[in-house]
Structure formats: structure tokens, C-alpha cells
């Protein structure tokens, strides 16, 4: 007859669902490496960067990210780390727990610019750009969104026409992360053959990337407009392995995977800040964490965060097994961004007036998540993707 246990398991306030037990030693090590990097290189400075609306030393930062293998880390060959989807997701969560702008830099570099070249580029494109981008020696950006073409990329106006053996590009792209500092842009344009992608080195005559200022979100991130005014490229600048919107949309799906992990990092930062604050802030002679309404807020935040993390981990395992559908990514992106924003807003109420101070990360994460909610597919678009998958009926134009 077995004896009764001498003690019962205790719930960890920082891991209430016991998710760490589902991670391998390697996955935990990857997470810790990124967490330590952020604690050393980012967190001491990011509030000041955000307040000033700048990301100083971005090239040195990119090289440091490259040294620990975070740029294109889920890609194989060409100097990329070849790590798992779960490893990449955990890295995105830790990066965004520091700041969404940092995770955006890594996502655009690895899951948009590098991924487009890795999947659709020629061997010459890959060997020229990927090793340098993986090392952080070259930065990339991804030009799809336009001033009048966000959720409807089929209506893009940027066009490329053949002129002898060359291509000539004209158009504008908007809200381009890394654009001003990028060494190479992957630009999507209409052609007589359909939508094609082009590898555009910075410095090509007619190409410019003025920085967008006066942002109320993603302030510790470089955002640009891309201007293409008669940009002449050689014939082999086109990505040879894809024609049509399948190209850019598959890249966006790759980036969304990291985004739905990342949003949970912002949520975790706000939850842990509120939890610590609730245990030390005294009102009416008691820590505010001793009051029922505050405990209800904390419990709801912890539960929604754990549910989001479990969903992300499940979908990460599916991605590593080759079973993740685009609709799954829409489910997770919709859930993570929506719940992360609610967690951040609730955390702000626990901190009261202090919640708006940059002494704490909450208002910064809240403002950043307003952009994360919108880019790579708005909640409305992902809702309709899921709705169509459930019903078999399209409602996009109704």
C-alpha cells in the first residue's frame, strides 16, 4: 500500500500551468540565453530609447543578435542556426518581453527578408545575402504594404516592367521595419506575369527609405517608407521560385508565427510587473494584492497568459512536425494579440497612475501591442480566415 505524499505540489506564480515541464533542456537553454541577452543589452536602455523614439546602435545590436544565432535561427544552411520552431517561438517571446520593437527587428530580418530569399531566391541570392544577414552584418527589410494597400495586397500599385534584360520598379511601400538601415529590401511588385519579388540592394539609384517619425507605438524601432523611382535592376534580381501572392503571403504566415509567441512576452512582462506591484503597494493598511478585486484581475491575467502559451507551444510542436496550417496561425495571432492587450490594460489598472510611467514597462507594451494587433493581419482579417475555415464560406467581400 503506497504511502501518502508528504507534501503537495505548489503552484508557481510565474508558471501557474507548469508549462516549463513541457520544454526540453535545449529549449529552456535557448530561452535563458535570450532572456539573459535582453536583461544585459536591452532592458537597461529600452525605456529611454522608447521615450526618445530611437533605436541607437542598431548595427552593433544586429551583430550581437547574430553572434547568439537569433537571426534566421529557424532556417537551415547559409550560416543559419537551423533551430526548431519552438526554439524560435521561445526566443520571440523573450525578445518581446523586452520590447516589441526588438522582436520586430528579428522577425523582419529572419522571417520576412531572409525567409523570402531562403525559400524563393536563387542560389546566387542565398549565398550573397543569407550568411551576412545571419551574422547581423547585413540588415534586410520587406516591402509589401503600401499607403493604400494594407489588408488587400492584391491592390498594390508598385509595378515592375521589363526594359530589355532589366527590370524597372516604380512605387511606394509603407510601414517598413528596418527600412532606413537595411542593406537589402525584398520588394513585391505587379508585373505582366503576376506579383513578383525583387532583391533590391540599398543604394540602387532611385531607391530611398525615409524614416517615419512621430509614432505613438513601436518607438524603439526603425520604421520607413520605401520609395522606388525608376529603380533599375538586372534580370536576375527577381526571386525565381514564386509568382503570385502566394509568395508574400507565405512569408507573412512565417512572420505571424513568431508574432503570436512574441505578444505573449509583452503580456508576461506586464503580468509579472503587476504581480510584484500588487504584493508591495500598500493601501488602507494592506498590500493591494490582498483585495479580492485585485486577485480576480491577477487570476484572470495568469489564466489567459497560460492558455496563450499552451496554444503557442502546441502549434509550435505542430509546425516542427509539418502539420501547422495557415488557419492555425490566424487562430493564434488573433488570440495572442487580443489577450495580450487585455492583460496589459488590466495590469495598468493595478498600477494605477504609476501604470503610465516609463519607470514601468506597461504603457510601452500597451502602445506597442496596438501596432502588433494590426500588422501581419488585423483581428478582422484573421477572424474571417478562421470563419471561412469553419464554415467553408468566404465573407471577405460582404
TrEMBL record:
<dbReference type="InterPro" id="IPR006089">
    <property type="entry name" value="Acyl-CoA_DH_CS"/>
</dbReference>
<dbReference type="InterPro" id="IPR009100">
    <property type="entry name" value="AcylCoA_DH/oxidase_NM_dom_sf"/>
</dbReference>
<keyword id="KW-0560">Oxidoreductase</keyword>
<protein>
    <recommendedName>
        <fullName>glutaryl-CoA dehydrogenase (ETF)</fullName>
        <ecNumber>1.3.8.6</ecNumber>
    </recommendedName>
</protein>
<feature type="domain" description="Acyl-CoA dehydrogenase/oxidase C-terminal">
    <location>
        <begin position="244"/>
        <end position="390"/>
    </location>
</feature>
<dbReference type="InterPro" id="IPR046373">
    <property type="entry name" value="Acyl-CoA_Oxase/DH_mid-dom_sf"/>
</dbReference>
<dbReference type="InterPro" id="IPR013786">
    <property type="entry name" value="AcylCoA_DH/ox_N"/>
</dbReference>
<keyword id="KW-0285">Flavoprotein</keyword>
<keyword id="KW-0274">FAD</keyword>
<dbReference type="GO" id="GO:0000062">
    <property type="term" value="F:fatty-acyl-CoA binding"/>
</dbReference>
<comment type="pathway">
    <text>Amino-acid metabolism; tryptophan metabolism.</text>
</comment>
<dbReference type="InterPro" id="IPR036250">
    <property type="entry name" value="AcylCo_DH-like_C"/>
</dbReference>
<dbReference type="GO" id="GO:0004361">
    <property type="term" value="F:glutaryl-CoA dehydrogenase activity"/>
</dbReference>
<comment type="similarity">
    <text>Belongs to the acyl-CoA dehydrogenase family.</text>
</comment>
<comment type="pathway">
    <text>Amino-acid metabolism; lysine degradation.</text>
</comment>
<dbReference type="GO" id="GO:0033539">
    <property type="term" value="P:fatty acid beta-oxidation using acyl-CoA dehydrogenase"/>
</dbReference>
<dbReference type="Pfam" id="PF02770">
    <property type="entry name" value="Acyl-CoA_dh_M"/>
</dbReference>
<dbReference type="InterPro" id="IPR006091">
    <property type="entry name" value="Acyl-CoA_Oxase/DH_mid-dom"/>
</dbReference>
<dbReference type="InterPro" id="IPR052033">
    <property type="entry name" value="Glutaryl-CoA_DH_mitochondrial"/>
</dbReference>
<dbReference type="GO" id="GO:0046949">
    <property type="term" value="P:fatty-acyl-CoA biosynthetic process"/>
</dbReference>
<dbReference type="GO" id="GO:0050660">
    <property type="term" value="F:flavin adenine dinucleotide binding"/>
</dbReference>
<keyword id="KW-0809">Transit peptide</keyword>
<dbReference type="Pfam" id="PF02771">
    <property type="entry name" value="Acyl-CoA_dh_N"/>
</dbReference>
<dbReference type="InterPro" id="IPR037069">
    <property type="entry name" value="AcylCoA_DH/ox_N_sf"/>
</dbReference>
<dbReference type="InterPro" id="IPR009075">
    <property type="entry name" value="AcylCo_DH/oxidase_C"/>
</dbReference>
<feature type="domain" description="Acyl-CoA oxidase/dehydrogenase middle">
    <location>
        <begin position="141"/>
        <end position="231"/>
    </location>
</feature>
<dbReference type="Pfam" id="PF00441">
    <property type="entry name" value="Acyl-CoA_dh_1"/>
</dbReference>
<feature type="domain" description="Acyl-CoA dehydrogenase/oxidase N-terminal">
    <location>
        <begin position="24"/>
        <end position="137"/>
    </location>
</feature>
Amino acid at each position: 500500500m503506497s504511502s501518502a505524499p508528504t507534501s503537495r505540489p505548489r503552484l508557481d506564480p510565474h508558471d501557474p500551468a507548469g508549462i516549463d515541464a513541457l520544454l526540453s533542456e535545449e529549449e529552456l537553454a535557448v530561452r535563458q540565453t535570450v532572456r539573459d541577452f535582453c536583461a544585459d543589452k536591452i532592458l537597461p536602455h529600452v525605456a529611454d530609447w522608447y521615450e526618445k523614439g530611437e533605436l541607437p546602435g542598431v548595427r552593433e545590436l544586429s551583430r550581437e543578435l547574430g553572434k547568439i544565432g537569433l537571426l534566421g535561427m529557424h532556417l537551415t544552411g547559409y550560416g543559419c542556426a537551423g533551430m526548431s520552431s519552438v526554439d524560435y517561438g521561445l526566443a520571440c517571446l523573450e525578445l518581446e518581453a523586452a520590447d516589441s520593437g526588438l522582436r520586430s527587428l528579428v522577425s523582419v530580418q529572419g522571417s520576412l527578408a531572409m525567409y523570402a530569399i531562403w525559400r524563393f531566391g536563387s542560389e546566387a541570392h542565398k549565398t550573397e545575402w543569407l550568411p551576412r544577414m545571419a551574422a547581423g552584418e547585413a540588415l534586410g527589410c520587406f516591402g509589401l504594404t503600401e499607403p493604400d494597400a494594407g489588408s488587400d495586397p492584391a491592390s498594390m500599385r508598385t509595378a515592375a516592367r521589363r526594359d530589355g534584360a532589366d527590370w524597372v520598379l516604380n512605387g511606394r511601400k509603407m510601414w517598413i521595419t528596418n527600412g532606413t538601415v537595411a542593406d537589402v529590401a525584398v520588394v513585391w511588385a505587379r508585373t505582366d506575369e503576376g506579383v513578383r519579388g525583387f532583391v533590391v540592394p540599398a543604394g540602387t539609384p532611385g531607391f530611398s527609405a525615409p524614416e517615419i517619425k512621430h509614432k505613438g507605438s513601436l518607438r524603439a524601432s526603425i520604421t520607413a517608407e520605401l520609395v522606388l523611382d525608376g529603380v533599375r535592376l538586372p534580370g536576375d534580381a527577381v526571386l525565381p521560385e514564386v509568382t503570385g501572392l502566394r509568395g508574400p503571403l507565405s512569408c507573412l504566415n512565417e512572420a505571424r508565427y513568431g508574432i503570436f509567441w512574441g505578444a505573449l512576452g509583452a503580456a508576461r512582462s506586464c503580468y509579472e510587473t503587476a504581480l510584484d506591484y500588487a504584493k508591495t503597494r500598500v493601501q488602507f493598511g494592506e498590500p493591494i494584492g490582498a483585495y479580492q478585486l485585485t486577485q480576480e484581475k491577477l487570476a484572470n491575467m495568469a489564466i489567459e497568459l497560460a492558455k496563450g502559451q499552451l496554444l503557442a507551444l502546441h502549434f509550435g510542436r505542430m509546425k516542427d512536425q509539418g502539420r501547422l496550417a495557415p488557419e492555425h496561425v490566424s487562430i493564434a495571432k488573433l488570440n495572442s494579440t487580443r489577450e495580450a492587450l487585455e492583460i496589459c490594460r488590466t495590469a495598468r489598472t493595478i498600477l494605477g497612475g504609476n501604470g503610465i510611467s516609463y519607470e514601468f514597462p506597461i504603457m510601452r507594451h500597451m502602445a506597442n501591442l496596438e501596432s502588433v494587433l494590426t500588422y501581419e493581419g488585423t483581428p478582422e482579417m484573421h477572424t474571417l480566415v478562421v470563419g471561412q475555415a469553419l464554415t467553408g464560406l468566404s465573407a471577405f467581400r460582404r
